[in-house]
Design a protein that fits this description.
Blueprint lengths: L1 H17 L12 H11 L6 E5 L5 H8 L3 E6 L2 H10 L7 E5 L12 E4 L6 H11 L5 E5 L10 E3 L2 E5 L1
Parallel strand pairs: 1-2, 1-4, 2-3, 4-5
Antiparallel strand pairs: 5-7, 6-7
Helix pairs in contact: 2-3
The chain binds S-adenosylmethionine.
């Protein structure tokens, strides 16, 4: 019994910690900032937002409620399953994809939403330029691109036109 619980605990810790090798650890965007991000994105119903590391799917759900199409990548298998299950009822509007967003070719999107860590912002800028998104609009919670002025800011969320 205790061995089983210990094993589950070890698996949980591993799932949440290995992701740190590839990106930001799990920390959800707060409700107020989710609303700010969607507002700041300026997207209209029918537009698509791409979330890099979608966690439990909360941003995708709010985006879908605003009439947007939302695509999220998630590398933590547990969070992927949670996001997948939570967003099932918005299946026509939300797609959750398992995998490492650095190694994927991104689908066309009108905006990209991220909650990363400072050391990854420059790498993200390079990846976005490489993906050749049309007029990429980037919404970032908490962290800024070094050397680039945000176009707008709201409640700790930054908007960029790259
Ligand atoms: C700071 S959390 C943000 C979660 C969610 N975007 C939110 O704002 O509520 C970062 C998320 O990205 C995921 N992640 C980190 N690196 C990743 C990668 N290379 N590919 C896909 N997901 C990644 C983590 O598992 C975690 O869920």
């Amino acid at each position: 019994m205790w061995q089983g619980l210990f094993l589950v605990l070890v698996v949980l810790v591993l799932m949440f910690s290995f992701v740190i090798l590839f990106g930001a650890p799990y920390l959800p965007t707060l409700n107020r900032q989710v609303a700010s991000a969607i507002k700041l994105s300026g997207l209209k119903p029918g537009d698509t937002i791409l979330e890099l590391g979608c966690g439990d799917g909360r941003v995708l759900i709010e985006a879908a409620k605003a009439g947007l199409h939302a695509v999220g990548y998630e590398l933590n298998p547990i969070l992927f399953i949670i996001a997948y299950l939570r967003t099932r009822r918005y299946a026509g509007h939300i797609k959750v994809i398992y995998g490492n967003y650095w190694h994927k070719t991104w689908p066309p999107a009108n905006a990209v939403y991220v909650f990363l860590i400072p050391r990854l912002m420059q790498k993200l800028e390079r990846k976005i330029r490489q993906e050749k998104l049309v007029k990429p609009r980037v919404v970032s919670f908490a962290f800024q691109f070094p050397g680039i002025a945000p176009k707008a800011t709201l409640n700790g969320v930054f908007l960029y036109d790259l």
